[in-house]
Design goal:
mainly beta, 25 strands, 31% strand, globular
Length: 210
């Protein structure tokens, strides 16, 4: 890699070409980035991480130590992956049977958080999606889609509440509305989904819906 690159790679890490790495991204000790992968701008990739071929990582993503982002995984902007969280891509692996054509996609949408040591196991046929600004608790095992803003924890992971864009748990009133106690953002529950009504902190990326 040329000296004119606008991202940092620690000397102990391996980055195979061709790949795309955005400006301001930092890749720390003992990482391996496979060819044809995409990493956005201003990401931070911690020690001993792996990025598989064709994996897609958005902007401002934080990947903590010992995380593997395999080929079928897509992380949108502002996703946080806690230390040693796990993504799997096959439900029924065997060492003696090649199933590379059966990889199941995992999509982690904008702003979502996956806690330390959580495991994400895709569904049998269609893969799995973790919704925008969802929060998966540490040590959880996620086996099905997670709605936007959902707080999920346990084994198997279940929706146990709802969280603001900033990560604070929301308390909904009788009118199915909630205001974040920390940042003041307002939300409404409608048909089992969370709708953003008012966003006070514009530093937190959000897409307002009606």
């Amino acid at each position: 890699m040329g000296k004119d690159r606008k991202y940092f790679v620690h000397e102990t890490s391996i980055v195979e070409e061709p790949c795309q790495i955005g400006e301001g991204t930092r890749i720390w000790h003992f990482c391996h980035v496979m060819p044809n992968s995409t990493i956005g701008k201003n990401c931070n990739i911690g020690q001993n991480a792996f990025v598989g071929a064709n994996a897609s990582i958005g902007n401002r993503v934080k990947i903590q130590n010992n995380v593997s982002i395999y080929s079928a995984v897509t992380l949108e902007d502002d996703v946080f992956c806690g230390p040693s969280c796990v993504f799997t891509d096959i439900r029924t692996p065997r060492a003696f049977i090649s199933r590379k054509n059966e990889f199941l996609p995992i999509l982690v949408k904008q702003g979502a958080t996956i806690g330390a040591n959580a495991t994400v196991v895709p569904c049998y046929t269609k893969g799995l999606t973790i919704g925008r600004y969802a929060l998966v608790g540490a040590g959880s095992v996620v086996t099905k889609d997670v709605p936007d803003h959902a707080l999920v924890y346990g084994n198997p992971g279940r929706v146990e509440g709802w969280v603001c864009n900033c990560g604070i748990t929301l308390e909904f009133n009788q009118d199915s509305q909630a205001q974040c106690a920390k940042c003041g953002n307002r939300y409404k529950q409608k048909h089992g989904k969370i709708i953003s009504l008012v966003v006070h902190n514009r530093k937190i990326p959000v897409l307002l819906t009606d």
